[in-house]
């Protein structure tokens, strides 16, 4: 069996999708109309350095991931057995499974990116070297209860999220620990996947309730529950995803428990491939 995984924010890079826009001219034109700017120019040239800004990053990655998937299906002539995506990438997984068409997915992602980018004053950081229990213990012992865990990326890579001042306060505490190999502040303006996204979640909930979704043709593994999506809960699960943690490690463990499983990353970069390798090493001992 094979699972296609789609990357999220952090995998964007100038030049991504360079060969794809001319192959999918009709969809590129659709994207330009929805977004109000040239998606090809943003991804390939990034003349104003917008690609790292959330409201631009999310639509750009969605488009490149979607084109990469369509290209892969053209080449192979068959669909994967499962799909999953990391945060924003989950929209590409749902697109691949037929929950919505390209245009609908882009409208959802555009709104999501706008709402998430409007939340300022937050910060996130990746803690490399500690597992989730150890991170929780450090937060508790140092009374850093205003910080949430945002991503369970791999057994030894946990992302924390909170007010920027609190993340700054946590930095020397984590760095002083011998087990911590790296503490990496992320280039984001908001505390994504945390309690601080509640207002954005409520606004997105009102927006997404205006959409109907098609039956899923492929099982999609949810970031929130690390289990396949329930058809009748697509709206609520996507809404919850904004302020709940990304359960990536558990999602991969679930998929590996289905039997002999190969994973292929669809989109720019190899971030997820690296995380999956670390999860596998941890399972195999």
Walkthrough of the structure:
With 285 residues, the protein is of the alpha/beta class. The protein folds into two domains: 2-119 and 195-284, Malonyl-Coenzyme A Acyl Carrier Protein, domain 2; 122-186, Alpha-Beta Plaits (2-Layer Sandwich). It has eleven helices and eight strands. The strands form two sheets. It has a four-stranded parallel beta sheet, with helices on both faces. A four-stranded antiparallel beta sheet has the order 4-5-3-6. Strand 4 (148-154) and strand 5 (157-163) form a beta hairpin. Helix 8 runs antiparallel to helix 9 (234-240). The longest helix is centred in the first third of the chain and has 23 residues, at 54-76. The radius of gyration is 18 Å and the shape is globular. It starts with a strand and ends with a helix.
């Amino acid at each position: 069996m094979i699972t296609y995984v789609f990357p999220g924010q952090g995998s964007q890079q100038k030049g991504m999708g360079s060969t794809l826009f001319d192959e999918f001219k009709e969809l590129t034109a659709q994207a330009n109309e929805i977004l109000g700017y040239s998606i090809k120019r943003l991804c390939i040239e990034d003349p104003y350095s917008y690609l790292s800004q959330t409201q631009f990053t999310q639509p750009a990655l969605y488009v490149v991931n979607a084109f990469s998937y369509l290209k892969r299906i053209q080449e192979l002539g068959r669909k994967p057995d499962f799909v999953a995506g990391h945060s924003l990438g989950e929209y590409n997984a749902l697109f691949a499974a037929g929950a919505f068409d390209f245009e609908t997915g882009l409208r959802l992602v555009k709104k999501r990116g706008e709402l998430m980018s409007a939340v300022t004053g937050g910060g996130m950081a990746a803690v490399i070297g500690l597992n989730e229990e150890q991170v929780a213990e450090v937060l508790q012992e140092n009374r850093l209860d205003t910080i949430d865990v945002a991503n369970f990326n791999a057994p030894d890579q946990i992302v924390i999220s909170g007010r920027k001042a609190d993340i700054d306060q946590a930095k020397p505490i984590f760095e002083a620990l011998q087990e911590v190999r790296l503490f990496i502040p992320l280039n984001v303006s908001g505390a994504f996947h945390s309690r601080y996204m509640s207002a954005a979640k409520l606004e997105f909930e009102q927006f997404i309730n205006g959409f109907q979704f098609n039956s899923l043709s492929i099982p999609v593994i949810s970031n929130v529950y690390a289990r396949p999506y329930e058809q009748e809960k697509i709206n609520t699960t996507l809404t919850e995803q904004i302020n709940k943690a990304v359960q990536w490690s558990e999602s991969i463990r679930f998929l590996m428990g289905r039997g002999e499983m190969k994973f292929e990353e669809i989109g720019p970069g190899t971030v997820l491939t690296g995380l999956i390798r670390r999860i596998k090493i941890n399972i195999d001992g």
